[in-house]
Amino acid sequence: MEEQIDMVGKAFVDHYYHLFDNDRPSLSSLYQPSSMLTFEGQKIQGVDEIAAKLNQLPIDQCRHVISTIDSQPSSITGGIVVFVSGSLQLPGEEHLLRFSQNDIFRLNYG
């Protein structure tokens, strides 16, 4: 079970940051109306609001380098809590920016 959770968490992280770096508007498909994103202390709720925030970031191009992925089952049935740390490479910048992100991922079968 633990190995499956780690595999799903890694697959989600790979997919999320691939979209963030290469096709940011598509990130909206990973959120739901009840989703909430806290970005640098600002709480944003809903698919359209989260998509607007992510698409309005003042970084057009970037590359995430993932250092760690920690995944564990959440109290939400079928959910996985994923904590990611890594670095963000911006064009023309010599130094990497460090970041961390904590998400709850859940497959929704309809």
Structural description of this entry:
This protein is an alpha+beta fold. The protein has one domain: Roll (Nuclear Transport Factor 2, Chain: A). The protein has two helices and five strands; from the N terminus they run H-E-E-H-E-E-E. The chain has helices at 2-22, 47-55, and strands spanning 36-39, 42-45, 63-73, 79-89, 97-106. The strands form two sheets. A three-stranded antiparallel β-sheet has the order 3-4-5, with helices on one face. A two-stranded antiparallel sheet has the order 1-2. A hairpin with a 7-residue loop joins strand 4 (79-89) and strand 5 (97-106). The protein is globular, with a radius of gyration of 14 Å. The mean pLDDT is 91. This is Nuclear transport factor 2. One of its GO terms (cellular component) is cytoplasm. Residues 8-110 form the NTF2 domain.
Number of domain units = 1
CATH topology: Nuclear Transport Factor 2, Chain: A
Report the CATH architecture.
Answer: Roll
Uncertain stretches: none
CATH class, please? Alpha Beta
Q: Report the average pLDDT across residues.
A: 91
Q: What overall form do the CA principal axes indicate?
A: globular
Major sheet: size, sense and barrel closure? 3 strands, antiparallel
| Counted beta strands | 5
Beta percentage is 35-45%
Cα gyration radius (Å): 14 Å
